[in-house]
Design a protein that fits this description.
With 296 residues, the chain is of the alpha/beta class. The chain is 38% helix and 16% strand.
Length: 296
C-alpha cells in the first residue's frame, strides 16, 4: 500500500514549533507580523489570504491586511508595496497573485524589499538560490518548493541519486524546485518538463519521483508511473462536477495512480498546507534573524 504523505499533519507540527518560537520572541519584545496585499476580490485569492491570516492567529503572528480594488493602477499597487516595506510592524509580506490584467506583476515583485519577501520570489532572493549550490542560504526560500522537501524529509524519502521529473515551468514550482533538488546535500537528478517537451510521458515513466505542477487535472495517469515512484501533486484546478454542478478541486495526478505509487501527496491536504506552513516559517525566521542582528 502506498504511503500517504499527510501535509496537514506535518504542517500542524511545524506550526506548533513556530508558536513556541513566537512566544520566545514575545518574551524578548518582538512580535512577528505577516502582511498581505490583495488586489480585487477574486474568490480563490480571497480564500487563500483568509487562510494565511487564520494561520497567523494560530501561531501568534500579527496579521497586517492591505486591500485594493480590482481597478487599482500599477502605481497604486506599487505604492501599497512600498508602504509595507516601510511598516515596522510588518516583518514580511506577500502580494497575492494573480494581479489584474494589465498590471506588470514582475514590476510589483521587484518593488518588494528582498528582506521582507516571505514568498521567496524577489529576483535577489532567487539569485541567491541560484548562486549557492551548497551550504546554508540566509535569504528566504520559495515556500512551495521548501514545503515539498520538508514533507518528503518528514517521511524519510531519500532524494540523493534519484531521478526526479518536474512537470511545469512556472516560477512557483517548475523553475525553482529544481534548484533546491540539485543542491549539494539533496543531490537529486532533475528532468524539467514543460509544454515543449517531447514524450513527457516517457520521462515520467522513468522517474523515481514525479512533481506535477502543470495545472492540468489528471495529467499524470497510471501508465505514466513507475511502480514504487513517489508522486507529489502540486496542481490545483477547479473542475465542475457534471452530476452536482458544483466545482471541486482536482490535482494533476489521477487518483488511480496511487495504486502503483510507493508514496503520494493527497490533493487537497498534501502540498498546500506545507506551503502555508513554510510562509509562516519564513516570517518567524526573518524575525529571529532581525532580533539577533539588533541584539534583542
Amino acid at each position: 500500500m502506498a504511503l500517504r504523505l499527510d501535509g496537514k499533519a506535518a504542517a500542524a507540527d511545524i506550526k506548533a514549533d513556530l508558536a513556541a518560537r513566537v512566544r520566545k520572541l514575545a518574551n524578548r519584545g518582538v512580535e512577528p507580523g505577516l502582511g498581505t496585499l490583495l488586489v480585487g476580490r477574486d474568490p480563490a485569492s480571497a480564500k487563500y489570504v483568509a487562510g494565511k491570516h487564520a494561520d497567523c492567529a494560530e501561531v501568534g503572528v500579527r496579521s497586517i491586511r492591505r486591500e485594493l480594488p480590482a481597478d487599482a493602477s500599477e502605481a497604486q499597487i506599487i505604492e501599497a508595496v512600498r508602504s509595507l516595506n516601510d511598516d515596522p510592524q510588518c516583518t514580511g509580506f506577500i502580494v497575492q497573485l494573480p494581479l489584474p490584467k494589465g498590471v506588470d506583476h514582475n514590476a510589483v515583485i521587484d518593488a518588494i524589499d528582498p528582506a521582507k519577501d516571505v514568498d521567496g520570489m524577489h529576483p535577489y532572493n532567487l539569485g541567491q538560490l541560484v548562486m549557492r549550490v551548497g551550504g546554508p542560504i540566509a535569504t528566504v526560500l520559495p515556500c512551495t518548493p521548501r514545503g515539498i522537501l520538508a514533507l518528503l524529509d518528514r517521511y524519510g524519502i531519500e532524494l540523493a541519486g534519484k531521478d526526479v521529473c518536474v512537470i511545469g515551468r512556472g516560477i512557483t514550482i517548475g523553475r525553482t524546485v529544481p534548484l533546491l533538488l540539485a543542491r549539494r546535500g539533496v543531490d537529486a537528478t532533475v528532468t524539467a518538463c514543460h509544454t515543449g517537451t517531447r514524450d513527457v510521458h516517457g520521462h515520467m515513466r522513468r522517474a523515481d519521483v514525479i512533481i506535477a505542477a502543470a495545472g492540468q487535472p489528471g495529467f499524470v495517469r497510471p501508465e505514466d508511473v513507475k511502480p514504487g515512484a513517489v508522486l507529489v501533486d502540486v496542481g490545483v484546478s477547479r473542475v465542475r462536477d457534471e452530476g452536482t454542478g458544483q466545482y471541486r478541486i482536482r490535482g494533476d495526478v489521477d487518483k488511480a495512480c496511487y495504486e502503483r505509487a510507493g508514496a503520494y501527496t493527497p490533493n487537497p491536504g498534501g502540498v498546500g498546507p506545507m506551503t502555508r506552513a513554510m510562509l509562516l516559517s519564513n516570517v518567524v525566521e526573518i524575525a529571529e534573524r532581525n532580533a539577533s542582528l539588533h541584539g534583542v
